[in-house]
Design goal:
mainly alpha, 12 helices, rod-shaped
Length: 257
């Protein structure tokens, strides 16, 4: 006859686990002997080993009791159900592991390689961290709405970064983003560059967003203002130069004022 500690050691579990199995009715609790100790026989050892084996295999404790009492065919069916559940759980965990692994991928978690390359080019031309992050968030919105058009647009976007005006624009915007001041002179310069670039784009017919009924341009404009409220001032400066906004850009019939 074994004490609870000896029983636990024999079956390879803890005393706490044995007591828990008693509490939930999974393992019968023997009467105490004359010395007020509980003593366990060979049957208890066999039962505890079965419980441990099923629990280690992933069988919920709530199902182990039924499985111990089941006949061979019922036991086999229960094992198949549990195996199917475990396969589904393994697939879910593997998918989670892949997603977690992607978290180390930075920008590539949500963006295509083409956009990631574009963001790398922005860093190379001197765009600040905040500027690149703002651009990245905008491209996340674009990719979610028009994923198939990214590859079509990116060669032209990359080519724009060879334009000294575009390089200067990103550097000016970076200075604005990284400053806590109003930076009126820089905002004026940014508006001048943007107006000139828009004029060139309109002259060549090269306009990135042309879906007039789509709400994404408005969302992108809103993102710019949410990222830095001074974007609203920049939009007003663009209007003074005869252009509405910077995403869905339209020439105003007559500049304000």
């Amino acid at each position: 006859m074994l004490t609870i500690g000896q029983l636990a050691a024999y079956a390879g579990v803890t005393v706490r686990a044995v007591r828990h199995y008693h509490q939930i009715g999974l393992l019968p609790e023997p009467e105490r002997d004359a010395s007020r100790y509980r003593r366990y026989g060979a049957t208890a050892v066999v039962s505890l080993i079965k419980i441990r084996t099923l629990a280690n295999a992933g069988v919920p404790l709530s199902q182990i009791g039924q499985m111990l009492e089941a006949d061979a065919s019922t036991f086999a069916e229960a094992v198949q159900r549990i195996d199917s559940h475990l396969r589904d759980e393994i697939e879910r965990l593997e998918s989670s592991r892949k997603q977690i692994a992607q978290l180390t991928a930075g920008d590539s978690l949500t963006l295509s390689p083409q956009v990631v390359s574009y963001l790398d080019r922005l860093r190379a031309i001197g765009a600040s961290k905040r500027m690149v992050e703002a651009e990245r968030d905008g491209w996340i919105l674009v990719a979610a709405r028009w994923p198939d058009r990214i590859i079509e647009w990116m060669p032209a976007k990359l080519a724009q970064l060879d334009d000294p005006q575009v390089v200067r624009l990103y550097r000016v915007l970076s200075e604005i983003f990284d400053s806590d001041a109003g930076e009126d002179a820089l905002l004026e310069e940014a508006a001048d560059i943007m107006a000139a670039l828009v004029e060139q784009a309109y002259s060549s017919g090269d306009v990135l967003v042309d879906e007039a009924q789509d709400d994404l341009p408005d969302l992108l404009d809103a993102l710019a203002v949410e990222t830095d409220p001074r974007a609203e001032r920049l939009r007003n400066l663009m209007r003074e130069r005869g252009w509405s906004g910077w995403t869905r850009v339209e020439r105003l019939a007559k500049p304000p004022g």
